[in-house]
Design goal:
By secondary structure, the chain is α/β, with parallel strands linked by helices. Strands 1-2-3-4-7 form a five-stranded parallel β-sheet. Helix 1 packs parallel to helix 2 and helix 4 packs across helix 5. The termini are far apart. This is ATP-dependent Clp protease proteolytic subunit. It comes from Planctopirus hydrillae.
């Protein structure tokens, strides 16, 4: 009985190569390039013409930053500012530097990105009716009817712009509530800025966008406004 003999296998001419390292995903502070900066400050009614003209003069579909420090004012002016921001396709990042209350909440909500410091103040409250005109009974009744519709419509619009439930807006607005910037950020409606960060505003915004781009789930309100 003979034993079968096996020929020794030849060594493979191929040798495994070490894995190539993947691209780095660490963040470096690259400063974005906004095309413009503007402010919404003071009483909206008093600044109405100037603010509307500023927004109309900006190149349509352009990107920039709107700094907000306003106690609010006329609800119609807030609505007009928000409408122009949206209808002209402005890729605006809003930054609340102090206060953003009442009617000023509307242009804030209309911006693609919203940033606040923990120290910012935001007042949500129902629309207030104030008139120095001498109204007839019929005019007062009609205004009351329209006022009721407008109040509900603005609550729904604000909720849609903020991308939150109308119940949340109603909860904050009835009878009224001051929120801190941190509380607004905790609700997912804005992002926090750090006054003591070594990076400036643009670098903090860019860092936030980088972090959101590498998260699994979509962020609630950020869009890459300067992409």
């Amino acid at each position: 009985m003979t034993k079968s003999s096996k020929k020794p296998s030849k060594p493979s001419p191929f040798r495994p190569l070490p894995a190539h390292p993947g691209p780095s995903i660490s963040w470096s502070p690259i400063v974005p390039n906004p095309e413009w900066e503007m402010t919404i400050a003071g009483d909206l009614f008093e600044q109405q013409t100037e603010l509307l003209e500023k927004l109309v003069e900006l190149p349509r579909r352009s990107a920039g930053i709107i700094y907000i420090d306003s106690c609010g004012g006329n609800a119609y002016v807030g609505l007009a500012l928000a409408s122009i921001i949206r209808l002209r396709g402005l890729k605006a990042a809003a930054v609340v530097t102090g206060e953003c209350s009442s009617a000023a909440l509307m242009p804030l909500a209309a911006c693609r990105e919203r940033y606040v410091t923990p120290h910012a103040s935001l007042l949500f409250h129902p629309i207030r009716w104030q008139s120095d005109d001498q109204l007839k009974l019929e005019e007062a009744v009609e205004w009351a009817r329209h006022f009721r519709w407008m109040e509900s419509d603005q609550d729904q619009l604000l909720a849609r712009l903020f991308n939150c439930s109308v119940e949340l807006i109603t909860e904050w607005s009835r009878p009224g509530r001051f929120l801190s910037g941190k509380e607004l950020a905790d609700a997912g409606l804005a992002h926090l800025l750090d006054l003591f960060d070594s990076h400036d505003l643009w670098q903090q915004i860019e860092k936030h966008r980088f972090e959101q781009a590498h998260k699994k789930g979509p962020d609630r309100q950020t869009e890459l406004a300067w992409a």
